[in-house]
């Protein structure tokens, strides 16, 4: 039965060698993509996990132990700060675009185009802008605060777009039902529409966290590269990604760089998987 | 205007708050343009527009210094072209497989795998390139290993998920009737896909390619680790090269005065490239909808 099938297939492809070549190319390309992915992840894990030693998480960074603990703390502060600013801003603007702006409103078009532009700007340009605006013009100096403002702008379009999609996915029935019961627009938005859009919004926020954790180029000249715990929000501090970059750029601590790469990779991949899981929930709804 | 009651005031107030939030991204783009151009253009003017863009020598510490970024423009161009060559050829075939030939069960495994590739931070890619690809290129092709070739390969891998994602959904958006029509005319499934479905998805696929180009041009940290960063005219694909992005990061730390302004102006040039690429992308996207 199976042999028959294979025979048929062979005969078919003998008649159409070009088709066989094309089919083979697609399989080959996919295999290549997958192999690259598997090789990259396993290589970093295999090389890095043995070096995940306690001194890599020492309380104080020295050029000997290249501890990543201060960098992890800086990363957490940066993520928290950026979310604090970008989440309300992103959600509010999405609410305006979906719930308030009338159809064909010219402002909506402008906001969409600028948000699209913003999401296409490379992180080094954000870094340059952050340096010129927050570090120099507003005199924040190299500081976590300057870093926070910079990455806020980077993740704003991401949160806006995912929230917009989540709000649009809420059936109009919900809104009509709420209006029918006598609720005002504001109440409808906050009590009915937003709660039903939570999984989608959360997926966007988590994706944004992943972006911030993996960000490097925008932070080198805004948050700076000091490898210590910050004294305040106005002191400089390197995030884990920047730490990783410095380690590989110096080239002195390759084993520790592997271990740092493991931590960074695992954290970002878990964050992304979480976001994907939440996003698939809205599709089911 | 007279409001009937408190709740109406609150409604109006919050609508205003939402509106202001929506304007934040407009303000952000506006501010970025202002700050970059205001800080970059004067430097460019001092150096001379032609000398800056087409100057072949970048030697900011020489006396007298020269600030020509043509080597870096070429560097970005070559590296991006190489990345597109790698990323598009592999990405397009992968997208065709995922969209048309892949069994549903296998798709459930492969799609998240592509997402994993998309999620890897660029500095981890750079590190991987540094410890794996640079020695590989050095041993198999000669040279120092940090080269246009290495950077192109690495960037090609980095833009793969972008191209695969956009191209796959473009191919899926082509009506099934196209495929069936081609089959009915006697074409093999492969032929139907490659000569009927794929051409119908062209503008979507192109949008993905342009998005990939944007990512490759703007990539910084990974490129710095594998490209060699020599600020001279590129010579051969095994020679080192410096991109526009690398130029900014490598020297901004110690640059002062006109040197600093020249680096900001480098950012302006990069930003202009990106704006043009974005424009192409949105035009293609509009056309797909229309």
Description:
The complex is a heterodimer of chains A (285) and B (290). Chain A is an all-alpha fold and 285 residues long. Chain A folds into two domains: 2-51; 54-284, MetI-like fold, CATH 1.10.3720. Chain A is built from eleven helices and no strands. The two termini of chain A are 42 Å apart. By secondary structure, chain B is mostly helical. Chain B has two domains: 6-59; 70-289, MetI-like (MetI-like fold). Chain B has helices at 6-47, 49-54, 70-101, 104-119, 122-141, 148-172, 176-184, 189-200, 202-218, 221-227, 244-252, 257-289; strands at 58-59, 66-67. A two-stranded antiparallel sheet of chain B has the order 1-2. In chain B, a hairpin with a 6-residue loop joins β1 (58-59) and β2 (66-67). In chain B, α4 (104-119) packs across α6 and α5 (122-141) runs parallel beside α10. The mean pLDDT of chain B is 91. At the A-B interface, α2, α3, α4, α5 and α6 of A face α1, α3, α4, α5 and α6 of B.
TL;DR of this structure?
The complex is a heterodimer of chains A (285) and B (290). Chain A is mainly α and 285 residues long. In chain A, 75% of the residues lie in helices and 0% in strands.
């Amino acid at each position: 039965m199976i042999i028959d099938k294979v025979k048929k297939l062979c005969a078919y492809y003998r008649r159409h060698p070009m088709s066989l070549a094309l089919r083979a190319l697609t399989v080959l390309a996919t295999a290549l993509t997958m192999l690259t992915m598997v090789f990259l992840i396993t290589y970093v894990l295999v090389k890095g996990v043995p070096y995940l030693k306690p001194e890599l998480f020492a309380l104080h960074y020295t050029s000997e132990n290249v501890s990543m603990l201060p960098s992890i703390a800086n990363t957490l502060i940066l993520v928290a700060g950026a979310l604090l600013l970008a989440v309300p801003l992103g959600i509010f603007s999405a609410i305006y675009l979906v719930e308030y702006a009338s159809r064909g409103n010219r402002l909506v078009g402008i906001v969409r185009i600028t948000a699209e532009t913003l999401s296409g700007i490379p992180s080094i340009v954000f870094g340059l802008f952050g340096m010129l605006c927050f570090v120099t013009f507003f005199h924040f100096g190299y500081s976590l605060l300057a870093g926070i403002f910079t990455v806020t702008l980077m993740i704003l379009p991401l949160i806006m777009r995912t929230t917009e999609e989540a709000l649009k996915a809420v059936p109009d029935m919900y809104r009509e039902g709420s209006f029918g019961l006598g609720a005002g627009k504001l109440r409808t938005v906050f009590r009915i529409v937003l709660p039903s859009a939570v999984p989608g919004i959360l997926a966007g926020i988590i994706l944004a966290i992943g972006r911030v954790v993996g960000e490097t180029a925008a932070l080198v000249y805004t948050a700076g590269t000091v490898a210590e715990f910050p004294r305040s929000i106005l002191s400089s501090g390197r995030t884990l990604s920047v730490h990783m970059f410095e380690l590989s750029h110096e080239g002195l601590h390759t084993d520790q760089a592997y271990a740092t790469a493991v931590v960074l990779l695992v954290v970002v991949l878990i964050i992304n998987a979480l976001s994907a899981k939440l996003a698939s929930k809205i599709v089911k709804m | 205007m007279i409001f009937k009651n408190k709740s109406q005031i609150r409604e109006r107030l919050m609508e205003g708050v939402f509106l202001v939030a929506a304007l934040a991204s407009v303000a952000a783009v506006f501010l970025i343009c202002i700050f970059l151009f205001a800080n970059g253009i004067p430097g460019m003017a001092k150096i001379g527009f032609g000398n800056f863009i087409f100057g072949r020598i970048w030697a900011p510490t020489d006396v007298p210094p020269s600030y020509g970024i043509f080597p870096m423009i070429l560097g970005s161009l070559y590296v991006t072209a190489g990345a597109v060559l790698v990323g598009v050829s592999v990405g397009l075939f992968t997208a065709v497989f995922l969209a048309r030939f892949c069994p549903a069960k296998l798709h459930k495994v492969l799609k998240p795998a592509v997402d994993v590739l998309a999620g890897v931070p660029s500095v981890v890619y750079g590190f991987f390139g540094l410890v794996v690809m640079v020695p590989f290129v050095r041993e198999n092709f000669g040279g120092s290993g940090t080269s246009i070739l290495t950077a192109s390969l690495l960037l090609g891998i980095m833009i793969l998920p972008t191209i695969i994602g956009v191209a796959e959904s473009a191919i899926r958006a082509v009506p099934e009737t196209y495929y069936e029509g081609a089959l009915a005319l006697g074409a093999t499934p492969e032929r139907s896909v490659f000569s009927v479905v794929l051409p119908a998805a062209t503008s979507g696929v192109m949008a993905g390619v342009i998005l990939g180009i944007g990512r490759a041009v703007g990539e910084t940290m990974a490129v710095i680790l594998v490209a060699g960063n020599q600020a001279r005219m590129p010579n051969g694909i095994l020679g080192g090269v410096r991109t526009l992005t690398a130029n900014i990061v490598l020297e901004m730390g110690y640059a002062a005065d006109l040197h600093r302004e020249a680096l900001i102006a480098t950012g302006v040039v990069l930003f202009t490239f990106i704006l043009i690429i974005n424009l192409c992308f949105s035009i293609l996207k509009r056309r797909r909808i229309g």
